[in-house]
Specification:
The protein is an alpha+beta fold. It has twelve helices and 22 strands.
Amino acid sequence: MKVLIIGGGGREHAIAVSMRRSGRVDELYCVPGNAGIAQIAQCEPSIGVMEFDRIVAYAKEKKVDLVFVAPDDPLAGGLTDVLEAEGFRVFGPSRRAAVLEGSKAFSKDLMKKYHIPTAAYEVFHDADAALAWLENAPMPIVLKADGLALGKGVLICNTLEEARAGVREIMQEKHFGDAGNVLVAEEFLTGREVSVLAFVDGKTVKPMTSAQDHKRAGDGDTGPNTGGMGCFSPSPFYTEEIDAYCREHIYQPTVDAMAAEGRMFKGVIFFGLMLTAEGPKVLEYNARFGDPETQVVLCRMKNDIMDVVDACIDGTLDKIELQFEDMAAVCVVLASEGYPVSYEKGFEITGLQEFEGKDNYYCFHAGSRFDDQGHIVTSGGRVLGVTARGSTLKEARGKAYEATGWVTFANKYMRHDIGKAIDEV
């Protein structure tokens, strides 16, 4: 098969590595890709993920058999629909289904209508109305921009003054652009966060192994929200009992609800969960693989990814048994200092060759590119996802942190407590 991956981050590099492990992929392409993906696939960095016409033309030029749409923006924008209209086989939800992530207000209303456990909430289209409601709201409270905001449009406000400032930031100052035209104010939940990615074919849902992301920029979960600073899998807090509950009350009901609304979902649903004292509740949905969750989940999956992709598209997922290695994985993100606010880029990355030929070690590229001299340099806030597998989470964590020392670049920054929660188990 000839496969085209849309995207250029660490998630897409992990997907590309899984595709290369498949015995069914002969030629692999990526738009726009990055310096890491370019070593295992043919990349076209001049095409952006929202340039739908150019993506269609490129797919036709390369005569690809399947397009895998990985990022949120093109999914919410309807790239799957555009490609399918041109006769391409596509992995990724339609625009109508991707609204599950594209609008937090939609997803909250869906959960309320179909009795899927989630935090209490209110939706506001007007800043003054939101500010008036806050006067009597319990603190802390969570404020969310309704639309896509690169994983950063969530504010946890501990005081009324912080909440007022949050409303102004999201709705009036437009820190997250048009994503903040509508605001969701949500009850603050406490407990353990867990991420579960699941393959979906419209009616059947097959959860993958669990993971836990670290969103805040600084150690001890301090600083601003980011796209994710690291991750580990599996979560020791996600028990068989919790899994059984989520399958019955969250996963299948979500897929059934989308079908009932005429928004049949095919692809991957990311279930962001909070394990509260009252039971698991949904924090958020994503309509695609998470980043960096993908890096620690796919490296443990035994299945040929193409078999699962085909089953999702063809509606035969019930015939697939997902299998994962009885190992753990930890990913530590190496970022540019100052991320996610402001940072410099263009610094040469050295030491990448240290990963070559080493089993159970991976270096997934996120923000990297080739410069004019052919050197690999930094090109984003999150630069690399250093990932390692081990027989236990503690072993995987030790290996991952060991490997972070193999690569260097100016302004290199990372958290030092990724997976620290596992020390408490």
